[in-house]
Amino acid sequence: MKLSLNYLLFLVLIVIGQASYGQRKVSIKVQLPSGIDYSKLILKYNNGQYIKEVKPIIANNAFAISDSCYSRYAILIFFYPDSTETEGMSGVAIWVSGKPANISFYQDSLTNKNPFRNYNLVNALSSGDVGEDRYYKFIDTELKDAQNFYFKNRDSINTNEKYLDILHKKQEIGERKGLEFIALNANQYYSIWVFKNEIVPSSSLRADSLLRFYQQVFPDSLKQTYEGNEIIKRLKGRISTKKGGEAPDFRVKDIKGNVVSLNGLRGKYVLLDFWASWCVPCMEAMPQIKSLHQKYPKDQLEIISITVDKTYGNFSAALKKINADWTQIYQGSDLVTRYGVGLIPQVFLINEKGVMVFNMEEEKDYQFIKLKKILEEAFEK
Fold first, then answer.
1. What gap in Å lies between CA 21 and CA 230, rounded to an integer?
2. pTM for the complete prediction?
3. Residue 374, Cα to own-chain centre: how many angstroms?
4. What is the average pLDDT across 273-300?
5. How many Å separate Cα 6 from the centre of its chain?
6. What is the pLDDT of residues 323-363, one digit of tens each?
7. In the chain, what are the domains?
């Protein structure tokens, strides 16, 4: 299967997983094709909870991975520059079950051929084996329309909300087409996997509608999986954080060891910022978060940033880079679950009575225009 790296990053890599459920170990041996430039290889590992980049130790064109997995399959995604590509890079995804797996890549005799196109698999499956190819063929027209618009207008999308809105509408059309495929193939594992990872995090589709779809379409055998468990939590979290509702309470420790709870912050506004050091839009939003921290005193506005980083070193380095001196939460998976966070950055504002008054995804206010107006009206009367 041929995936654009940029599109995969946009739709998948910021999807977040939370709970420790059915954890097991996966062992994978990989034989790389000869003659490749290792510095150009990008390798991603999806363990069901989150996706991370892997930097393996390569010897004799081979390496091994032993890591945790929560879903039925772990997924290794190989990206390598392909001279035949016009946008992004070609991606090859290999699905691995619980048995020790072997992936052996080899090159054919054709020139200008991506060296990761050909492989032999033991205890592993290709994207076609699990149903991914059929899914993307089903949504191909809608997918290409969104991709083409993104690549043609990516600079404007970053600076103009009009273009961003158009992209979201095109993505919604693709997501609704995806729901058609899922409904037609509800008994297949891949359907619940793609529903969890690509449909549930969408801000374009209503969480209550998706919850009804899930309950009506999927069989009990798939609902009683890690994916089913996560889908319920995420959708209920999204529903509970709609603007106008009572914000879910929480009790966590910040990186200094202080206990932070929503009930303990009653009487002041609370801004929750979900981010990660590897998330470019998150880092771009940090100066605005910092300006709000500097503008409003802590007895008026409490800012709490919750990272989804899995490596403390990366998180700590990012804090130093932005000189963040407000409340920081590391390993806040319970908060991520309670608030139904699927994509980052995500920002919530809770008023002094504990009521949700701003949800960035719901408002589609990525430049914080509405957020700043709410704060100004609250404090600058």
1. 9
2. 0.77
3. 28
4. 91
5. 13
6. 888 999 998 777 888 888 878 889 999 999 999 999 998 88
7. 5-127 (2.60.40), 137-240 (no CATH), 251-379 (3.40.30.10)
> Structure tokens of 244?
């106008």
**How far apart, in whole angstroms, are the C-alpha atoms of residue 69 and residue 22?**
8
Average pLDDT, the chain: 85
Q: What is the pLDDT of residues 94-117, one digit of tens each?
A: 999 889 999 999 877 665 567 788
Sheet bearing 301-307, strands edge to edge: 327-329, 301-307, 269-275, 346-350, 356-359
Distances (CA, A) of 81 to 6, 44, 116, 119, 133: 13, 15, 10, 17, 21
Q: How far apart are CA 83 and CA 321, in angstroms?
A: 36
Residue 164's H or E segment, with its range, is helix 161-184
Residue 352, judged by CB atoms within 10 A of its CB (0-12, 13-18, 19+), counts as middle
143 contacts 136 by C-beta, under 8 angstroms = yes
Amino acid letter for position 45? Y
If you ran DSSP here, which 8-state letter would residue 105 be given? E
Query: Tokens 């079950």 label which residue?
Result: 97
Quote the CA–CA distance of 45 and 130 in Å, as a whole number. 17
Tokens of 270: 């609370």
Strand duo 259-261 + 251-253: pairing: antiparallel
Q: Give DSSP secondary structure letters for 170-231.
A: HHHHHHHHHHHHHHHTTTSHHHHHHIIIIITT-SSS-HHHHHHHHHHHS-HHHHTSHHHHHH
Spatial separation of the C-alpha atoms in residues 338 and 334, rounded to whole Å:
6
Quick check: 341 and 332 in contact, CB under 8 A? Answer: no
pLDDT average, residue stretch 356-372:
89
- Closest-CA residue to 118 (of 128, 132, 104, 100): 104
pLDDT (0 to 100) of residue 215? 96
Q: According to the model, what pLDDT value does residue 19 have?
A: 40
Tokens of 304: 């709490």
